[in-house]
Design brief:
There is one protein chain. The chain has 191 residues and is α/β, with parallel strands linked by helices. The chain has a single domain (2-190), classed as NagB/RpiA/CoA transferase-like (Rossmann fold, 3-Layer(aba) Sandwich), CATH 3.40.50. The chain is built from four helices and eleven strands, in the order H-H-E-H-E-E-E-E-E-E-E-H-E-E-E. It has helices at residues 2-24, 27-44, 65-74, 145-152; strands at 52-54, 78-83, 92-96, 103-105, 111-113, 124-128, 131-132, 138-139, 157-161, 182-185, 188-190. It has a seven-stranded mixed beta sheet with strand order 3-2-1-6-9-10-11, sandwiched between helices. The chain has a two-stranded antiparallel ribbon with strand order 4-5. A two-stranded antiparallel ribbon has the order 7-8. A hairpin with a 5-residue loop joins strand 4 (103-105) and strand 5 (111-113). The two termini are 26 Å apart. Keywords: ATP-binding, Magnesium, Metal-binding, Nucleotide-binding. Its EC number is 6.3.3.2.
């Protein structure tokens, strides 16, 4: 099954790269759509009591979740970014002030908040998607970090954030794969 997943992952990464490049070609429209379509869909699917939101620092062709997080910050949410602390470990979440200059390079060269920033337990974990299906399963880069994290934070709402074109009919599911609660794309929310 891992060979099938690996081949699918590569195909989906190429698809996402193509989608992202085309959408970013009209940058003003890209960010306007994030502000007027994607962000309201995320807010609609977050319980009112939620105050701590974790997103992700976008890598390559991932949706610009930094921009989404800035919109949450403007509405007085506490925002966090995930931090890899070790192989085969769940992620931790450090509070972020929303400023690019306050980030440092973490494992895998991913930008993360400074180690002096408080560790938080997010009410909501927004996760990137390489691909997803209508059963609310996602495929990521294959390291299992988010699946381990979802198990470590069972009370956090799990939201996948991606492009509608990343939808596949059905993903191969393994024992350690954890379902999302919601998937949000520019086209709508899947529950």
């Amino acid at each position: 099954m891992e060979t099938t997943k690996k081949a699918l992952r590569l195909k989906l990464l190429e698809r996402r790269k193509f989608i992202h490049k085309n959408l970013l070609s009209i940058q003003d429209l890209y960010y306007e759509n994030l502000r007027t379509k994607t962000f309201p869909l995320l807010k609609e699917n977050i319980p009112p009591r939620s105050r701590i939101i974790s997103g992700f620092y976008p890598i390559g062709s991932e949706i610009d979740c930094k921009f989404i997080l800035s919109l949450f910050k403007q509405q007085s949410y506490i925002i966090c970014l995930p931090v890899v602390i070790g192989k085969d470990q769940p992620l931790i979440f450090r509070e972020w002030d929303g400023e690019e200059k306050s980030l440092v390079e973490g494992m895998y060269r991913i930008k993360v908040p400074n180690s002096e920033n408080p560790i938080r337990v997010p009410d909501v974990i927004i996760t990137p998607l390489v691909g997803f299906d209508l059963n609310l399963y996602r495929i990521g880069y294959g390291g299992g970090y988010y699946d381990r994290t979802f198990k470590a934070f069972p009370n956090s709402l799990r939201i996948g954030l991606g492009y509608s074109e990343q939808l596949v009919e059905e993903l191969p599911v393994e024992e350690n794969d954890v379902k999302l609660h919601v998937i949000v794309t520019e086209e709508g929310a899947i529950k």
